[in-house]
Amino acid sequence: MKRRRLLLTSAATALLRAPAMAVRQTAAAASPAQADATTLARRMAEGRLSSERIVASCLARIQALDRAGPRLNSIIELNPEATALARALDAERRAGRVRGPLHGVPVLLKDNIATGDRMATSAGSLALAGVRATRDAHLVKRLREAGALILGKTNLSEWANIRSTRSTSGWSARGGLTRNPYALDRSTSGSSSGTAAAIAASLAPLGVGTETDGSIVSPASICGLVGLKPTVGRISRDGIIPISATQDSAGPMCRSVADAALLYAAMAGPDAADAATASAPADGAALLPRFAPDALKGVRLGVARNFLTGFDEADALFNTAVQQLRALGAEVVDDVGLPGAGAYWDAELTVLLVELRAGLEKWLASFAPGAPVKNLADLIAFNLRERPREMPHFGQELFEKAMTLGGLDSAAYQEALAACVRGARTEGLDKAFDTHRVDAIIAPTGGLAWLIDYVAGDHYGASFSTPAAVAGYPHLTVPCGLVRGLPLGLSFVGRPWTEARLLAYGHAYEQAAQARRAPRLTPRTTPG
Rounded distance, CA 499 to CA 228, Å? Predict the structure, then answer.
């Protein structure tokens, strides 16, 4: 384990020194909070900046944009120990102890990731408000060991958007509604809504989200970020409030591919508490990509035309990105005929709801034994008692449906699981990869941000998240530009354990396209 950490640290340090690694800055960042993590790490290593100053900058920007001003409402709770932790990490650096390239860099965590500190871990629910986890999640432990500073918890779609059939993404009873910094009347998508909005608005340099199906890549795309949903098992799910043992994953949400790569490598690693991590390749050094301008040369990319958005302006922007990929040396196969996800959507929902019921009870017993709810039935009853506060906009139809299904040993669950493997892997991604001999499959990550609607709920359009989510395969989204001021993401989906390759592809495209634009906090995108 020590050798693995040394390899990762050495490789990461080399990447920090690479001149082409970070996204080009339009100008010197107005404040440390607005700089990318790789720049902050370099400046601290050079003695030009301290963690305490970075934290102060982040807190000031949070006060100005999240608590006041446009009131993005993206951060559900700040770490009361953040400044003290920054001072301690600065003291370590002065004493010659640097834990890694993230030493002293602030990170925001989605509020379904357990931290054994003074902050609650609530999934946005009043049922867990004020409930402190018994210990850190495995990924949090790894981040602390790497020197990262946990700045706070971000708001999310309550219970990671598994509660209702007509939910409003970005809303939780504990945190309220998070707004999109590109247009305040538009959705952030979900469920990693707060992480997406906070990092897009430069409230902190690094953010961690979680995904079951789309909850990293969709808000990342809609909020103009890089988001990586790793192969299931690459990052331990220990301590994450669960939905699905077969699909859940945590991953980085950042403003550059370089930052995402560093954060991902710090979190990834084996964990006895999560059996899925035993399947991951043992070579830790391979976690970090080799960033080079020619990383796409000779790479075969297959276009999944079935997953275009249907909106001509968005699809035209994607087609421009395809031409840029060709110009960078990629061989584009257009089209790989990847089937839509409709054939296994019902099966996926069955898998998620059965696994949710079993997993939630175990998490509550282990991480929140003092909580007023012990299982899904208790949670449903709590929500009914607290209906005015917990269900003012939508209900809990999915929770209730989960209670009607059998367990992990039921025939219905086993059949649904087999249908998911067949649809997403055997007859889906694996077939496309093998038939067309492609290294990755590309498509628009999804549609543009929709108007917030408390009455009808989310207006989801096209989405490319489901095949990789159900298969458990890695999925990277990178900004490819704006359509009428709203971001669109370009997705790269790969075979299992190919995160480093996807990051290298995404970085080469990012550096050439320079497509990301900072949000302008536009109040409205419609007249009136």
Answer: 8
In the chain, the N- to C-terminal Cα span, in Å, equals 59
Task: Please list, in sequence order, all residues whose beta carbon lies within 8 angstroms of the beta carbon of residue 100, skipping any fewer than 6 positions away.
Answer: 5, 8, 9, 12, 146, 147, 266
In tens, the pLDDT along 130-145 reads 999 999 999 999 999 9
> Closest Cα to residue 145, out of 91, 95, 103?
103
Instruction: Find residue 489's DSSP bridge partners.
Output: 479
Contacts of 122 (CB under 8 A, 6+ apart): 76, 111, 128, 129, 130, 131, 174
pLDDT digits 0-9 by tens, 414-450 = 999 999 999 999 999 999 999 999 999 999 999 999 9
- Report the C-alpha gap between 280 and 457 in whole angstroms: 38
CA torsion, points 331, 336, 342, 344, in degrees to nearest 10?
A: -100
Residue whose entry in the numeric block shows the structure tokens 């275009």: 308
Given the residues 169, 172, 215, 244, the one annotated as active site: 215
Convert the pLDDT of each residue in 242-296 to its tens digit.
Answer: 999 999 999 999 999 999 999 999 999 999 999 999 999 987 657 889 999 999 9
DSSP conformation class of 195: H
Catalytic site includes residue 215: yes
Instruction: From 246, 281, 302, select the one nearest 434 (Cα to Cα).
Output: 302
Q: Which residues make Cβ contacts (< 8 Å) with residue 94, sequence separation at least 6?
A: none
Strand partners, 209: 251
Query: Which residue in this structure is represented by tokens 């430069």?
Result: 202
Q: Per residue in 11-42, pLDDT tens?
A: 565 566 544 344 444 344 579 999 999 999 99
- Region of 304 please: left (phi>0), alpha (psi -120 to 50) or beta: beta
Indicate if 244 belongs to the active site. Answer: no
Give catalytic status of residue 2 as yes or no. no
Phi first, then psi: what are they for 414, rounded to 5°?
A: -60, -40
Which of 50, 51, 57, 110 does the annotation list as catalytic?
Answer: 110
**Options 191, 249, 463, 491, the catalytic residue:** 191
DSSP 480-525: EEEETTEEEEEEEE-STT-HHHHHHHHHHHHHHH--------BS-S
Predicted TM-score (pTM) above 0.85? yes
* Distance separating alpha carbons of residues 138 and 147, to the nearest angstrom: 14
What does the pLDDT read at residue 287?
Answer: 83
Torsion of CA 255, 258, 259, 262, to 10 degrees: 160
How many other C-beta atoms are found inside a 10 Å radius of the C-beta of residue 459? 12
417: region left, alpha or beta (phi > 0 left; psi from -120 to 50 alpha): alpha
Closest CA to 13 of 111, 135, 146: 146
Contact 119, 137 (CB under 8 A): no
Is the CA virtual torsion 153, 154, 158, 162 positive or negative? negative
pLDDT for position 461 = 83
